[in-house]
Write a structure and sequence with these properties.
- Helices cover 25% and strands 29% of the residues.
- The protein is elongated and about 90 Å long.
- The chain contains 9 helices and 20 strands.
- The strands form 6 sheets. A 6-stranded mixed beta sheet has the order 16-15-17-20-19-18, with helices on both faces.
- The chain has 331 residues and is of the alpha+beta class.
């Protein structure tokens, strides 16, 4: 591609590099210069304009963006592409889910040519219908076809959308005298609806291992959520102990995400069980959202996966939480 100022006589068919005001109207950058444009520009006293001229082997920015976005999506279902415009194509989620990315492949694609860029949401980002998963932007007005082909091959199939595979959930609330009762049910229900799930049942049981174990074994939802009336503060506290008593397994207690530290994850006869911290009664972004969304979409979550959530896991600063270190003199 050649870029720079040219005499008007050489501008026909080239791409206008900068917007121009002409006869009260505007010729926008990216416009392909036509014979009529040249006559009007000449009449206005313009002698040269800055343009981009495609050469053999070049691909127009829109075609390049579409080729690269199509490769990034690959054969993934549930992702649509916007119409290319000024060298940009967006990848849009058709429904809710979790974005699964191959970061190494996307990095390789971005390393091919600085003029070809791919930007995505964070890995495992929970997305809603109509949400943008990624955007492909070609910065220059054209790229060599060889560069587009290399970037497309590097990015092929690197963006996927995991859709929910579970449809229902059971919420078990343990009750203590003077406890929060059913506070938080609305927030949990809202989280489920965002994943195209519904709350199949809500059960209240005493805050006792045996009562909770019985409720676990009879739960009908695809996923079981536990919200205790008293904070779960140890791997052998009431809720995780009840899961073991019912014959289940605790995969992980505690997560390096705040809010969300006291979450635990396990399963009972293949059914996911998530112990929610009391802070999940709030609708704000929570570590439970990171776990629930992956579990709902059938993405395996291991203890190592949760351990790796700490970087970026400080979701919200809580001003009222004591920070004794901040009361000490700064050095």
């Amino acid at each position: 591609m050649k870029f720079g100022p040219v005499p008007l006589a050489e501008a026909e068919g080239a791409v206008l590099a900068h917007s121009l005001r002409l006869d009260g109207a505007r010729l926008r950058k990216g416009h392909v210069v036509e014979a009529g444009d040249i006559l009007r520009l000449r009449a206005a006293g313009v002698t040269e304009i800055t343009v981009a001229r495609l050469e053999p082997g070049d691909m127009h920015e829109d075609a390049a963006a579409l080729a690269l976005a199509s490769a990034l999506r690959g054969e993934a279902c549930g992702i649509t592409l916007s119409a290319p415009f000024t060298g940009r194509v967006n990848l849009i989620a058709e429904g809710p889910g979790v974005v699964v990315l191959d970061a190494a492949r996307i990095n390789d694609a971005n390393a091919v040519d600085p003029m070809a860029t791919l930007a995505t949401v964070a890995p495992f980002h929970q997305i809603h219908a109509g949400g943008m998963i990624a955007t492909v932007k070609i910065i220059s007005y054209a790229l060599p076809e060889t560069a587009v082909a290399r970037a497309a091959e590097a990015a092929r199939g690197a963006a996927k959308l995991a859709r929910p595979v579970h449809g229902t959930a059971t919420l078990i609330l343990t009750e203590i005298p003077g406890g929060p009762g059913d506070k938080g049910v609305t927030a949990i229900n809202t989280r489920l609806k965002a994943l195209d799930m519904r709350l199949a049942e809500t059960r209240g049981v005493p805050h006792e291992e045996s009562a909770l174990a019985r409720a676990l074994t009879s739960a009908t939802g695809d996923i079981v959520l536990i919200l205790t009336g008293s904070a779960t503060s140890d791997p052998f506290d009431t809720a995780p102990a009840a899961l073991r008593l019912a014959g289940g397994r605790v995969e992980r207690f505690g997560m390096p995400v705040d809010p969300g530290n006291l979450l635990f994850l396990g399963d009972l006869a293949g059914k996911p069980v998530i112990g929610l911290p009391g802070s999940a009664r709030s609708p704000v972004l929570h570590g439970a959202d990171w776990v629930l969304s992956r579990v709902a979409c059938g993405i395996p979550v291991t203890s190592a996966d949760i351990a790796a959530m700490g970087v970026g896991g400080l979701l919200k600063e809580i001003p009222t939480r004591p920070q004794p270190r901040e009361r000490r003199p700064r050095i």
